[in-house]
Amino acid sequence: MTHRHGGALARQRRRILLLAAAAAVALAVLLAFGLGAGEVPVPPLDALRALVGVGDTADVMLVQDLRAPRAVAAIVAGAGLAVAGAVMQRVLRNPLASPDVVGVTGGASLGAVAVLATGAPAALTPAGALGGGMLAALLLAALSWRGGVTVTRIVLVGLAVQQGLAAVVNLFIVRFPAELAADALQWTTGSVYGRTWTETGTGGALVLAGIVLALAGHRRIAVLDLGDESAGGLGLAPNAARLQLLLLAVLLASVAAALTGPVGFVALAVPHVVRFLAGPPTAGSLILAALTGAVLLLASDLVVLHLLPVHGLPVGVVTATLGAPWLLALMLRQLKPATAGSTTR
């Protein structure tokens, strides 16, 4: 039995390694295409060389100053959202749990729009989004912890928080002067337009640190999977560990939302896709989730830029179009045991 179990683990590791390699290659291909495509085309290999400052001076300036920050922002945000969703779903033991469902990205949207409403410099908008995401998480915690915590309660309260924050954002936009409404709109649907290296570099460093912490905390996640009693017997304080891991997921999602606004679907769906392809979650599947999220968001942005007939659409339109039926299918699947008469926690 032990030999069979070890063989299964080895096969899963090989599968994850192959899938991660395929995702990395796909990401490199998409990045080369994204950096090279546009009104002034640059061959893909030349675009990758220009990214590191090699080649024609005009190509280097075009790629590094205009195209690369947007593409890298999509990669960073996609990776952060996917890992945040994977951690949140496992800690809460609910496939519907994700930052865009429980209100975190809605809070980020409100924070960004509030900064715009005050007339503050646009450079402070990502900081407002990060603060808004954290405040939404605190609001979720305060409302969920009251009267006892269950994963179902957290998801339901999160949905209510998300809708309430969306209503406040819409009120801001209605009251905005016309010249600010367009800037505010991208923070209600999600967009990587206009990102700078300062924002992308800071966000990238924070997301990378968050992913490293998630990998370091994977053992605690695995212990929590055994149940609170078993986790306590193994020396882990389950409530404290759960709170720390959820805070990490919120930080990752808030940083990603500070770059892109409230992009939906990525955090919700990518963990499910990874489980379907790679099997039970492991530390390696977190890396695969990060790569898959990066591929998904970058591909969605390239669809917006080069395939859709309407120019200027935010990337959140594409991910939301994919995400709406996915969320409905997950909710119907969750309701099946209840209609069959079984109880859920």
Structure write-up:
- With 345 residues, the protein is mainly α.
- The protein is 78% helix and 0% strand.
- Helix 3 packs antiparallel against helix 11.
- The longest helix is centred in the first third of the chain and has 36 residues.
- It is globular and about 60 Å long.
- The C terminus is likely disordered.
Report a brief summary of the structure.
78% of the residues lie in helices and 0% in strands.
What secondary-structure arrangement, pairings included, does this model have?
Elements: H1 2-36, H2 44-51, H3 57-92, H4 104-117, H5 125-145, H6 151-175, H7 178-189, H8 197-216, H9 218-224, H10 228-233, H11 238-260, H12 266-278, H13 283-306, H14 315-339
Helix pairs in contact: 1-2, 1-3, 1-13, 2-3, 3-8, 3-11, 3-12, 3-13, 4-5, 4-6, 4-7, 4-11, 5-6, 5-11, 6-7, 8-11, 12-13, 13-14
